[in-house]
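=== RUN LOG ===
request id: a7f3
mode: sequence -> structure
chains: 1
length: 266
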Amino acid sequence: MTEPLLFEQDGAVVTLTINRPEDRNALAGDDLFAAFEEACTRINRDMSVRAVILTGAGKGFSSGGNVKQMRDREGIFAGSAGEVRANYHHGIQRIPRALWELDVPTIAAVNGPAIGAGCDLACMCDIRIASETAVFAESFVKLGIIPGDGGAWLLPRVVGLSRACEMAFTGDAIDAQAALSYGLVSRVVPAGELLPAARALAARIAANPPQALRWTKRLIREGMNTTLPALLQLSAAFQDMAHHTADHREAMAAFFEKRSPEFQGR
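=== RESULT ===
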């Protein structure tokens, strides 16, 4: 059976590729949900991993939910109203929960259409780079449904409330340049340069101490929900730990010795 999510590690960088091009990389099936959970758990346990790239196989990033299953009331769309609610919780919502708990910085390399839950999937990542062929749509309303995977929480935090409302209330698609102007992506590159650009950015991230990277990401995530005084307390606790790492001592030595540091994740 074809793996639904390819896991490839090159040094400190892991590339996750949704591997369902025949379904436009639809986010469906317990095997895919489990694969995201397993990949995130594996990465969190491996201090050698310092950056993650998420992309889609073929010409698209992800078409979101499986519309054929939706029409036929199959998969997570099967059953009564109460059953569908449980299906979402135990189904596609496993992906945002797994990615939210992922300690390592993530880059979405959006290689084509990112529609519905596919758009939200890109927003689950820390950084987004788009191919010129990328298209984004928060299109749930077009099918008479709502963002069931956390998009109503994610999208406003990425593009701001007004833009998020415009995208969600119209369901209209925007191209890569519009996504850039919205702040939905940080960069647009030619299609053939997307993965090299993502890998180059991942390499710049991975050049830094893995513990400091993970703590920095956690502080940014916690800062989305907490008060400044609470975040300052957490920052002090993380900083205390950071100052007592071997990587901090190595960074200081390399700075004064004017050489490249060699971090060990300790």
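=== NOTES ===
The chain has a mean pLDDT of 94.
The first strand starts at residue 5 and ends at 10.
=== END ===
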